[in-house]
Amino acid sequence: MVAFQYAWDAFRANVGPILTGVAVLFVGSILVGLLWFGLVALLGSAVDAGNDALGIVASVLTVVGLLGYLALAFIVQAGIVRAGLAIVDGRPLAWSTLLSTDRLGTIVGASLLVGLVAAVGSLLFVVPGVIFAFLAQFFLFFVVDRDEGAWEAIMSSIRFTVDNVVDVLLLYLVGAIVTTIGVLLCGIGLVVAFPVVVIAQAWTFRFLHGQPVST
């Protein structure tokens, strides 16, 4: 598939910045996650010890930690999409691209909305959730590239996917295979698989919109 051949070539051409960025974001996510689990453990200890004051403080910090972790996850997710678009546009990768908080509120709202609808759909015999996730897979591209609102971006992704269903379905299936291979390689392969899939999505997003792609 052209998108993945392009993505693989682009990954190799930018392997240093990509792997450095992925490593830093991965380590940062782990540290924030460990901090949150530590706060949860502190809350449990306070409850067991009957220390109400410490329990209240730990509860507040736990909620704040969870919100911080989710915000970081959304920033990372959007940053990787921005990086993919930068690569296919021929722009240099920068930390400001990966860690930008621009339109964070819309990104959080759209991500939560997609997650909620997909979760509800998955409870309804799984298939509706999978279909919705497939249709909405480009919502972040419309948020960060087209400055669309949460619901508008989701609907744009659905229309874009339906209008190009054969190409997008092939992208989705190949992406699933690449990601599965990454998981089977003790998870380390995801360091390569995930950026390649995102770059392939960015190439597809640009190409199917009739926009130029950097060679």
List the helices and strands and how they pair.
Layout: H1 2-13, H2 15-49, H3 52-88, H4 95-98, H5 104-123, H6 127-135, H7 139-146, H8 150-163, H9 165-184, H10 190-208
Question: Please, could you describe this protein's structure?
Answer:
The chain has helices at 2-13, 15-49, 52-88, 95-98, 104-123, 127-135, 139-146, 150-163, 165-184, 190-208. With 215 residues, the protein is mainly α. The chain has one domain (2-208).
Keywords:
mainly alpha, 0% strand, single chain
Provide a concise account of the structure shown:
It contains 10 helices and no strands.
Secondary structure: helix percent: over 70%
Largest pleated sheet: none
Structural class: mainly alpha
Separate helix tally: 10
Runs in which pLDDT lies below 50 for 5 or more consecutive residues are: none
The tally of structural domains comes to: 1
Distance between the termini: 16 Å
- Please write the string of helix (H) and strand (E) elements: HHHHHHHHHH
Mean pLDDT: 83
Range of strand content? under 5%
Say how many strands there are: 0
> What value does the Rg take, in angstroms?
19 Å
What general form does the structure show? globular
